[in-house]
Amino acid sequence: MDVVISEHDLNYDLDNQSQHLSNSSHDKVMHSAVIDDIASVIGWIYFTAWTLSFYPQVFSNWKRKSVVGLSFDFVLFNMIGFIAYCCFNVGLYWIPSVKAEYFKEHKDGVSPVQINDVFFAIHAVAITLVVIIQCFIYERGTQKISVWSKVLVGFIFLYVIITLILTLSGEMIWLDFLYNFSYIKLVVTCLKYTPQAYLNFKRKSTLGWSIGNVLLDFIGGWLSIIQMFLLAYNGDDWDSIFGNVTKFGLGLVTIVFDSLFIFQHYVLYRGKGTYSVLKDYEIAVTSEHPTGRGSSPYTAPLLKKEDLKISSPWLDKTVQSGH
């Protein structure tokens, strides 16, 4: 005797199986709701720290009406990196087909991108654009983007175009294409701090580079890594750490370089205040602003010692001693 199964019964059976698998997956990826809540709170705290970290530099530039001391290579790499990071986060969080590709490779896994990651990336692009505008309208001395930075950015754009063509032709899936953006962000982050650290070393000062930015960045780096480990433990999905190698790498690189900047600011170049004459490069004074904006502190553009003609005995002594 033949057994006839109606389409309704078949769909009902498949739905039950699907629900069972969904429940099993959910049970597997959630050890503790408390830990999940803690990870979520930590995520928003580091999102806040990293978000606020942009503003001390913006405020410092505005107050000084100068971007002398801020590496233009750093600013360029910042923008390129955050655009790439924004593409990766938005794609992995909001595009259904990309999310499906991720969970196909990470069955029973958890998404490595949280909503705070998405909003952080979008905000970062916007506020970095503000810094770029400041670089155009404020005193910048002889600072400019280096040739090697321009060449590197050119290679990055070429790489993106090539991988996009491969993706459109079906040689690469969209998930892997977005992973390339995450790798670009990681590489750029590893590179972007180097010009700023070198500029601080060259000037023997951190004047113009906001320490508030560094401290908030440092806190955010630690918290982002802690969140990743909490999510991985709670979901028995340690692969998620390497599934979002960018987030893990960003936190690690940030901690290393911020430690260097803290050492430069509080140990190596401690005491280089607003009114110190910086060896060979610039002098910060208080007088009528050369652009006619009124009387306010500003940093004069990269002056050589021999170019300084100052009648004050104190400043003459400072210049001659090279301090």
TrEMBL record:
Pfam families with a match to the protein in the record: PQ-loop
Membrane topology reported for the UniProt record: Multi-pass membrane protein
Location in the cell: Lysosome membrane
A molecular function (GO) term: L-cystine transmembrane transporter activity
TM segment ranges: 38-55, 67-95, 118-138, 145-166, 172-193, 214-233, 248-269
Catalytic reaction list: L-cystine(out) + H(+)(out) = L-cystine(in) + H(+)(in)
Gene Ontology cellular-component terms listed: lysosomal membrane
Keywords assigned by UniProt, alphabetized: Lysosome, Membrane, Repeat, Symport, Transmembrane, Transmembrane helix, Transport
InterPro entries the UniProt entry points to: LC_transporter, PQ-loop_rpt
Family: Belongs to the cystinosin family.
PANTHER family per the UniProt record, alphabetical: CYSTINOSIN
Protein known as: Cystinosin homolog
Primary gene name: LOC106061193
